[in-house]
Specification:
The protein is an alpha/beta fold. It has helices spanning 3-13, 18-35, 45-59, 77-85, 113-120, 132-135, 158-168, 186-193, 218-231, 251-263, 266-286, 298-311, 313-332, 335-343, 376-394, 401-410, 416-426, 436-467, 483-555, and strands spanning 65-71, 103-107, 127-130, 145-149, 173-178, 203-207, 239-241, 477-478, 481-482. The protein binds guanosine-5'-triphosphate and magnesium ion. Residues 71, 73-79, 92-94, 96-99, 151-152, 208-209, 211-212, 243-245 line the site of guanosine-5'-triphosphate (GTP). Guanosine-5'-triphosphate is lined by residues 71, 73-79, 92-94, 96-99, 151-152, 208-209, 211-212, 243-245.
Length: 557
Amino acid sequence: MGGRLREALRIADGRVDADQLIARLEAIRRFLGLVDGHLPDTPLVPARTLVERAGTRLTLSRDHTVVALAGATGSGKSSLFNAMARMELSPVGVRRPTTGVTHACVWGPLDGGTRLLDWLGVLPRHRFVRESLLDGDDESTLHGLILLDLPDFDSVEHAHRLEVDRLLGLVDLVVWVVDPQKYADRVMHRSYLREFRRHRDVTVVVLNQSDRLPPAEVPRVLADLRRLLDADGLDGVPLLTTTVADSGGLEPLRAALERTVAERQAALRRLSGDVDAVVDTLDDMVGEPRTVLAADDPAVTALDRALCRAAGVPTVVAAVEQAYRHRAAAATGWPLLRLWRRLRADPLRRLHLPDRRTGDDPDALVAATSVPEPSAADKSALALALRTVADRAGAGLPNAWPEAMATAARSRLGDLPDALDRALGNTDLGVDRPRLWWRLVGGLQWLLTLASVAGLGWLALGYVVQALGLPQLRHPTVGEVPVPTLLLLGGPLVGLVVAAATRPLVRWAARQARRRAEAQLTLAVAGVSEQQVLAPVRAVIAAHADARTVLEVARHR
Ligand SMILES: Nc1nc2c(ncn2[C@@H]2O[C@H](COP(=O)(O)OP(=O)(O)OP(=O)(O)O)[C@@H](O)[C@H]2O)c(=O)[nH]1
Ligand SMILES: [Mg+2]
């Protein structure tokens, strides 16, 4: 038999597989773990309660089926209870309401039933056991039944209602007892029966006191009641007539309970219905699937830009450009001017970024960087960018998810300034090493200066020779100009020309250096953005995706 067919037959059969139910409950438990801290607690209370309650119910006796008789006061719950038990166990009275505490009757050996009754909170003095020995085989078909006679749910006594509500949440099957007079009671239909529409397979309705109706009236009342039940979403639930006034009046109910006990499915069906209800509410809380936040998402790139500004990247790259020019000028300029240049502070050093040339430990120096604090405008731009990322991540998601994304985006905000400082400090800005061409130009300038000095020396020597009356030196000439003069004047002149020619090159190279540094810093800041902002947001997105996946498991009946 194919798996699908088997599945179809299983559903048609209406049986609930215990292992499947346990897997569904486990999925809800995992769901709760995944959304913990992301979704508010209050709407998750029913799910938590169910996981706990179902776990307990399943570990307690599965051989027992807990059936509650529920209904308005005077509908005849206690009368039915006593009639089923064939003993006067629960007082039936004329004073309304009569039953104030839940009574229980157990058919067959008590065994694990005691702990079940403890859990249900039925006091020992209100527990009764149908000893099978007394009944011969008559009652053996009901072995495993724990029948509860509840107080009235519409009671003037508040405590009665609390007790009923508590037990309706715990029992395996509910028999709603109505009477010909009050079967249409709106409170009962609206506040109770409608709430059980997910539990149609563990709901039975009995029209009790049917002896009080003329026989011809019974079908009309039943039809009317069926119509009301359909409107409650309880279409298809068993609707029986009972009376304690004649001996066979209990048979339909007894037969229904015998079937229920024999199937041993009620507890599983009840919990399965509870899981269905919880899954629906949880489903509303997770909404549609989210795609992950891509690295090139506009919100992410906007965040990176805002972080760059907040980190002072524009200040640093401007300083890089200046420092490049400063250092290039110091290395390539006219040797006499270089000294003066060196006396001026290096623009980059003024920012106190760690200096790779001197081997400063970048991590040790972070606190000392003098990159200016972000302006108020930068800060609000950053806050906006964080909000936008959170909005993008949580777009279209219900409930608290957008808020959870926003909280995650801001969760490491306190570490952000340090992380950005560290990222800046660790980035190679590319201006620490002198360029080879600086050295060449610098060397040329030295040569030209030396040539000039040599020319000067040569000329000076000529004058000294002349002053001493020695035979005059004959300077070689280039054209009309003597070489020493050419050297003396030509050196600085060519030096100035070289310096002038170098300047645009330096400016261009400085802009290149700025661009490179900007690219490196942007990369470093993107790393910080990923680690401090996007990673927590992605964690929430992943939790959301995982929560959806486990919810699919929980949905699968
Ligand atoms: N004629 C007739 N009277 C019934 C039937 N069932 C119950 N009664 C009477 O209806 C009245 C109320 O019965 P109870 O069994 O005390 O009703 P209950 O639902 O337990 O009421 P509370 O304990 O107050 O919630 C009693 O006087 C019963 O004798 C029935 O099938 N036929
Ligand atoms: Mg009663």
